[in-house]
Amino acid sequence: MSKSSRTQEHFVAPVDSDVLPETDAVQDGQAPLSMWGEAWRNLRRRPLFIISALLILLIIAVAAFPQLFTQTPPDGACYLTDSNAGPRPGHPLGFTLQGCDVYARLIYGTRASVLVGIITTACVVLLGGTLGALAGYYGGWLDTVIARLGDIFFALPLILGAIIVMQLPMFRENRNIWTVVLTLVVFGWPQIARITRGAVISVRNADFVVASRALGVSRFQALVKHVLPNALAPVIVTATISLGTFIVAEATLSFLGIGLPPDIMSWGNDISAAQTSLRANPAALLWPAGALSVTVLSFIMLGDAVRDALDPKARKL
C-alpha cells in the first residue's frame, strides 16, 4: 500500500456503537407538549424566571399579609422624639421625619403600590385586548375607528397624560386608588390594543381558523375559541412588563403630590415625604426607592423570561 493510501484511511466505528437509533428514538407513550407546556418546561430551567418569580411571590405575600412581616403599626407609633433616628432593636431601618418606623411603612406601603399595578394591568388587558382583538379580526371601519382612537391617546405619554387628568377638579378632590387606576387605564390601553391587533391579524387566516369556519363555527366563536388562545403570548409578555411600568407611574404621581392621598401608605408617598430630610436621613428615601426598583425589575425579568420561552426566535444566544 502506498504512502498516500495510508494517509487517506478513515476510522469507521463499529455498528454496535452507533448512537443514532437511541437519539432518533420516539417515545410513543408520551403525549406531545402544547405551546404552553413547552414554554413552562423551558421556564423551569431558567434561573432568571425562578429568581423573578420568587421575588414576585414574596412581594405579593408582603402586600397581602403585611402583619406577618412586622408587628409595628405603621402610623400608630410615630413620636417626634424619634424624628430621623437611626436603626435600633425592633426598628432595623430607622425612623422618618415624623418619627414613624421606616420598616413598617415600607411593608404596609407595598399593598397600595402593588394593588394599583395589578388592577391597572388587568383593566388595560381587558379593555385594550378586547378592542385590539375586534379591530384585528373584523378589520374594516371598526379597525379604522379603534386605530385612530388609539392614536389620540398615544399622542400623550402615560405620565404626562396622567398628570393632566389628575389635575382636573373632579380627580384632584377625590384622589384614591380607583381614580389613579382609571387615569392609568385611559392612557395605557392603546399599547396592549396594538399588540393584540397585530397578533390576531397574524393568526386569523391560519388553516385551523379557516377549517373551523368551514365547519360552521361563527366568526365570533372562531375568534374566542381559536384566534385568541393563539394570540395571547405577546399580550401576556407585554402585560407582565407593563405591570412594573404602572407601579412606577403610581409612585411618580404620588411623588408629585397628585397621586394617592397622603393618608394612603405607598412607596411613592414615602419617597415624596422623605425628600425634605434627604440630607439628614437618606435611608428614609432610599429604602422605599429600593423596594420600588426591585419590584419593577422583578416584573421586567419575568416578562423577559416569558418572552424567550414563548418566542424561540427571540431567545438570546
Give a verbal description of the structure.
With 317 residues, the chain is mainly α. The chain has helices at residues 3-7, 20-23, 35-43, 47-64, 102-138, 140-154, 158-166, 169-172, 177-203, 207-214, 219-227, 232-255, 267-274, 283-310. The protein is built from 14 helices and no strands. The protein is 65% helix and 0% strand.
Q: With helices defined by DSSP (H or I, 4 residues minimum), what is the helix count?
A: 14
Name the beta content range: under 5%
What structural class do you assign from the helix and strand content?
A: mainly alpha
> For the terminal residues, how far apart are their CA atoms?
49 Å
Order of helices and strands: HHHHHHHHHHHHHH
Instruction: Give the total of beta strands.
Output: 0
Low-confidence stretches: none
The largest β sheet comes out as: none
Helicity range of the residues? 55-70%
Shape: elongated
Integer-rounded radius of gyration: 27 Å
| Arithmetic mean pLDDT | 84
Compose a concise summary of this entry.
This protein is mainly α and 317 residues long.
Q: What's the SSE blueprint?
A:
Blueprint: H1 3-7, H2 20-23, H3 35-43, H4 47-64, H5 102-138, H6 140-154, H7 158-166, H8 169-172, H9 177-203, H10 207-214, H11 219-227, H12 232-255, H13 267-274, H14 283-310
Helix pairs in contact: 3-14, 4-5, 4-14, 5-6, 5-9, 5-12, 6-9, 7-9, 9-12, 10-11, 12-13, 12-14, 13-14
